[in-house]
Amino acid sequence: MKKTLLLLVPASLTMLLASCGGQQPSSQSTAFSEKSEATSTPTSKSEETSQPSVTSESEETSMSTFISSESEESTVTSSDTQPDPDPLYNGVDHDFRLEAEAGVLDGTRAKRSDNPAASGGLMAADINDCGQGLEWIHYAPVAGIHELNVAYWTGAANSKHGVYLNGTKVGDAVYAEANGWADGVTGPAIVTVSVDLVKGYNKISLVKDGGASDNPEYGGWAQIDYVDIVGANATYDVESLDFTVSEIVLEAERGNFHTGGLPFQCDTMGENYAVGEINEAGHGVDIYFKVPVEGHYGVKITYAQGGSGNVADVTMNGEVGEYELPAYEGQAYNVPNTSEVVVSAQCFNSSLNFVSVTRSPNSAGWFIIDSITLVPLTE
Ligand SMILES: [Ca+2]
Ligand SMILES: [Ca+2]
Q1: Which residues keep their CB under 5 angstroms from ion ligand 1?
Q2: What pTM, to 2 d.p., does this model score?
Q3: CA atoms of 164 and 169, how far apart (whole Å)
Q4: Nearest ligand to the C-alpha of residue 209?
Q5: Are residues 303 and 221 in the same domain?
Q6: How far is the CA of 112 from the centre of ligand 1 (A)?
Q7: pLDDT tens profile 247-298
Q8: How far, in Å, is the centroid of ligand 2 from the Cα of 303?
Q9: Which of 240, 270, 290 is at the close of a domain?
Q10: Which of 71, 153, 244, 252 could be joined to 223 by an S-S link, Cβ 3.0–4.6 Å?
Q11: Ligand 1 centroid to 189 CA: how many Å?
Q12: 329 contact partners, CB below 8 Å, separation of at least 6
C-alpha cells in the first residue's frame, strides 16, 4: 500500500456525529477495533466484535445479484451489448432470490461465511458496525408492492436491519426470534417486509443502522442467508423489459473502509452514512462488485470536504487516476458533492470488479466518501 503520510485536520471539524456499532455477546469472537483520534474527521465511535464466521468464496450469476465474492478472476470477454435474454425473465413475476453472500461488497468486515444449512452453502456475517450491511441490484420486471422474506440467524432477539430501497429507508427487518447463531445444521428463520419496487433496476440494502436506545442496542446483530422477493405472479411482456443501466451507486460504508474510524451517520449522505476519518495517505475505501450489464463504466465520487486541494487516488480494474476533488459551494463535512467521471474501465457481470478511492499523498487534507457511482460510457 501507499506510504503513510500523516496530515492533520482542524480540530474545529472534529465532532461526534453518532455512536453506533455494538458488541456481540461474549461468546462470539473478537475481530477488530479502531479508535478515532483528536485530529480526525467526523465519525462515530463504536466497539466492535464479530460473529463467528469463516470467509469463503461464492459465485453469483443472476441479473438480480450483481455483487459477489472477491476471489474470482476476471476471465470474461466483455461487451457493451445487452445480455442474452435471462431465463429468469420469462413473462411471469415469480420469486427471485438474492443470496446474502452476493450482497457483500466487502470481504474484510462483513463476510461471506460457509454454512451447510444455508442456501447456496453461504451466508453473510460480521455485520457489526453501523452503516455496514448488504446491498443488491435487483431487476424487477413488474412494479409494485412485493414482500421480501429475509432469512436470518441471530442470538439476540429483536435485532434489526434498516431496509433501504433506491436510497430511501422504507422500514426495518426485525429479527424477532432468537434462533441462535448459525450452526451449520439449523436453517434460518424468516421475517417478511414489504417494498414498493419500480420496474427496472432497484437497489435494495439491509443496513445495521440502529441507535443506542434499541434493544439490543444499535440494532443488534444478525447473520443473513438470503432475501426472497416474492413474485406477484402477474404476467408481463418480456419485450417491454429494458436492461439498460443508467447508473449504479455503491455505498462507501458497505465497502472495505480502511480509515482512522468507522462510518458515521449523517442524514444528508446517501443511505444515511458515509466514510470519514480519511486522515492519512492510503486511507479510503475499496469495493468488490459486479455490474448487471457488462461494458465500459466511469467512476464518479460523491464526497464531502471542508477545504480545497484534496486529492484522491482512484483505481478501477487496473485503471488508475489521481484526481483533485473540486471545491463546491457550501462545502462542509455534511454537504456532499458528486465529481465528474474520474476513471473508467471495462466492468464485468460474471466476474468481480474492484474499485478503490483513497487519499493521495498529494492531498492537502481530509475528505469524506459517501458513495461511488458507476455510469455506463460509450467508448
Ligand atoms: Ca445464502
Ligand atoms: Ca453513503
Answers
A1: 99, 118-120, 122, 225-226
A2: 0.82
A3: 4
A4: 2
A5: no
A6: 9
A7: 999 999 999 999 999 999 999 999 999 999 999 999 999 999 999 999 999 9
A8: 9
A9: 240
A10: 153
A11: 13
A12: none
Number of neighbouring beta carbons within 10 Å of residue 306 = 20
Which ligand number lies closest to the CA of residue 124?
1
Say which ligand is closest to the CA of 58.
Answer: 1
Using the structure block, give the residue that is written with the C-alpha cell 422504507.
Answer: 170
Distance CA 85, CA 240 (A): 12
Is 85 inside a domain boundary? Answer: no
Q: How many residues does the chain have?
A: 379
pLDDT digits (tens, 9 = 90+) for 143-163: 999 999 999 999 999 999 999
State the pLDDT at residue 44: 37
Closest CA to 322 of 357, 349, 374: 357
- Nearest ligand to the C-alpha of residue 249? 2
Reported confidence tier of residue 17, pLDDT bands at 50, 70, 90: very low
Number of domains in the chain: 2
The ligand minimizing its distance to the Cα of 368 is 2
- Rounded to whole angstroms, the Cα distance separating 174 from 172 reads 6
pLDDT of 350-369, one tens digit each? 999 999 999 999 999 999 99
Query: Which residues constitute the domain of residue 158?
Result: 96-240
